[in-house]
Write a structure and sequence with these properties.
Two copies of one chain form a homodimer. With 223 residues, chain A is α/β, with parallel strands linked by helices. Helix content of chain A is 31%, strand content 29%. In chain A, the strands form two sheets. Chain A has a six-stranded mixed sheet, sandwiched between helices. A four-stranded antiparallel sheet of chain A has the order 2-1-4-5, covered by helices on one side. At the A-B interface, helix 5 and helix 6 of A face helix 5 and helix 6 of B. Bound molecules: adenosine-5'-triphosphate (2 copies) and magnesium ion (MG) (2 copies).
Chain lengths: 223, 223
């Protein structure tokens, strides 16, 4: 269960004060497949970053699996994320001096219950490229490796920021099917920010954001 | 006019030989709006990079505005690109120590016939953020700045690699309208790699790629 209560996030840059999140409150149940939609700059990545403990809040509380992450120190947050959470970043964040295989292995080594690397390589269609380095991959290939690394960890909650942004329709669909099966078979909670409207059809809950606020929550109740 | 003749691009990585482009031939007329579609890894970015002189070919010839760019030295290529070409990269490539305004100004300063910065800031909806640095922007905002910088230069040929990948549908449409107007009003040649199928409707020519080859060219003849 993720509880978000009255969260505000304000960035100060010189004279400009950006209210990236304005009094956001929400609950996400275990095993839910949640999609976050909204225009560019509406606060989606910021929402994901504070809920997963990657960034601090200006005010408000966030409780994940009964732990108050807004009260944690940096060290406790790092430990918490390592134990429980998986991330697919909007900018991939691959390690440039590790091959495709080794990047995915990093994810696997962080898990008590990992998923086999060769199986994931096949699922993302990159078995042939496994010894390449990130700079030798296409944009979409880098994105797929970043997805496989997060999946290898087999986390209890997976946060994804635009995981299909660089992918064509077919490859994007394949990625979504993998995420859907993870959610159904392993009850992984999935929170996914996306512009891909096809994803909302498979979601339990669709959160619509605009100018730092949640202005609508659609409950699809797939479960 | 861009003439591409029998172009091959082979990457060698250890034992793996990747044929990123296999005997590609094509002509692009002045003022054409060309869209390149294809699955992840099919060679789209590679195609753009060799045609614009950012990368070398393994064999074949590329002639842009009567200049044989496959015969040019690095210095000549840099000069050629600076004079004639504009780029919107798949990974934005903004300068991290320059603000939004300054990043766009870099584009403007490279032109003999630039477009006004404030006008572009308004077109991309980022007037308020003009003094922010790239790390303070959302993914889609960074992409929009990278677009504005290329437009400020007002080049004769504009190469775009997935310019709307990080944008929601509405913002993406706004960007496409700006590109369309540039093409119609200033006769700018536009070559755009994208997964956004909506873009093909506004194209004069749609190039379909698969495994390093052009397997179909649709001629929409908007002109
Ligand atoms: N420097 C490199 N060394 C080795 N292989 C490379 C290199 N750059 C690209 N490739 C390979 O060339 C092929 C085509 O890559 P390219 O980036 O052109 O694809 P793309 O169509 O743009 O894909 P995407 O839609 O995912 O961006 C891929 O298989 C990629 O792994
Ligand atoms: N470090 C920062 N300093 C200042 N402003 C910031 C910072 N990070 C984000 N912002 C601002 O907060 C707002 C929300 O950003 P966020 O990245 O959450 O948007 P987003 O919904 O993910 O957008 P996109 O769809 O373009 O990725 C934007 O206006 C952005 O400029
Ligand atoms: Mg974002
Ligand atoms: Mg590409």
């Amino acid at each position: 269960m993720i509880k978000i209560k009255n969260v505000r996030k304000i960035y100060q840059t010189g004279v400009v004060e950006t209210h990236a999140l304005r009094d956001v409150s929400l609950e996400i149940k275990d095993g839910e497949f949640v999609v976050v939609l909204g225009p560019s700059g509406s606060g989606k990545s910021t929402f994901l970053n504070v809920v997963s403990g990657l960034d601090s809040v200006t005010s408000g509380h966030i409780i994940v699996d009964d732990e108050v992450i807004t009260d944690m120190s940096d060290k406790e947050l790092t430990n918490f994320r390592r134990r429980k959470l998986g991330f697919i970043f909007q900018s991939y964040n691959l390690l440039s001096n590790l091959t495709v295989y080794e990047n995915i292995e990093v994810g696997k080594n962080l898990s008590h219950n990992p998923i086999e690397i060769d199986e994931l390589l096949e699922k993302i269609g990159m078995t042939i490229e496994k010894d390449k380095y990130p700079y030798q991959l296409s944009g979409g290939q880098q994105q797929r490796v970043s997805i496989a690394r997060a999946l290898a960890k087999n986390p209890s909650i997976l946060f994804c920021d635009e995981p299909t942004g660089a992918l064509d329709e077919t490859t994007g669909k394949q990625v979504l099917e993998v995420l859907q099966r993870l959610n159904k078979e392993l009850n992984t909670t999935i929170v996914i920010v996306t512009h891909n409207i096809a994803i909302k059809d498979i979601a339990d809950k669709v959160i619509h954001m605009k100018s730092g606020e949640i202005y609508e929550i659609e409950d699809n109740q797939q479960k």
